[in-house]
Amino acid sequence: MKEKIQIMDENAMRRAVTRITYEILECNRGAENLGVIGIFSRGAVLAERIVKKIYELEQISVPLGGLDITSYRDDRVVENHAEKTKIDFFVKDKRIVIVDDVLYTGRSCRAAMDAILAIGRPQCMQLAVLIERGHRELPIHPDYVGKNLPTAKTEIVKVSVQELDGRDCVSIFRD
Average pLDDT for residues 153-172, to the nearest whole number? Predict the structure, then answer.
């Protein structure tokens, strides 16, 4: 039996996304030349929220993309994969913010970087994550973090978003 512990509720998630957005704007001195790409599926939802918040704050429409990293993974074999990637802007020379829900081993982020480099060479790539849980296997460090959440390797961190799961929350499942 797994015990579920809620770490963030809807309000905490909203505040974290708002804080990440402000940090992105401060670090990049505004929204000019930015592009935001979310890793499917929950990272893409969070990326959309960040882009909406940037528009709310700066009245600038930042290009938004969704990235399917399945074929770039080094830890999974893929059969009959239909790619969902949708990036309708040129990444060349843009400052790209990659958005993911949970940073764990770093393999998803490495796959995202490979996928982006396959379509163009950005000026730079930055990483925004809602949850940073540790246990990295690759030398990847987030630029923007909603919440640092030290965990045991046996724990499972689950991000739920309204658009896909019917509610916003972050939970840990423990044995």
Answer: 96
Evaluate whether residue 27 is within a structural domain. yes
Kindly state the tokens that stand for 154. Answer: 């046996």
Q: Is residue 80 part of a domain?
A: no
- Asked if the structure places residue 81 within a domain, the reply is no
Q: Is residue 116 predicted with pLDDT exceeding 60?
A: yes
User: Predicted confidence band at 54 (pLDDT cuts at 50, 70, 90)?
Assistant: very high
What are the tokens at 28? Answer: 């990049």
Over residues 132-137, the mean pLDDT reads 95
| Integer Cα distance of 144 and 19 in angstroms | 9
* End-to-end Cα distance, the chain: 6
Is pTM beyond 0.70? Reply is: yes
Question: Pairing relation of β-strands 95-103 and 34-39?
Answer: parallel
**CATH classification at residue 62:** 3.40.50.2020
3-class secondary structure, 59: coil
Residue 1: its pLDDT value, please?
46
| Cα-to-chain-centroid distance, residue 157 | 14
> For the chain, what is the domain count?
1
- 81: helix, coil or strand? coil
Domain housing 100: 10-70+90-151
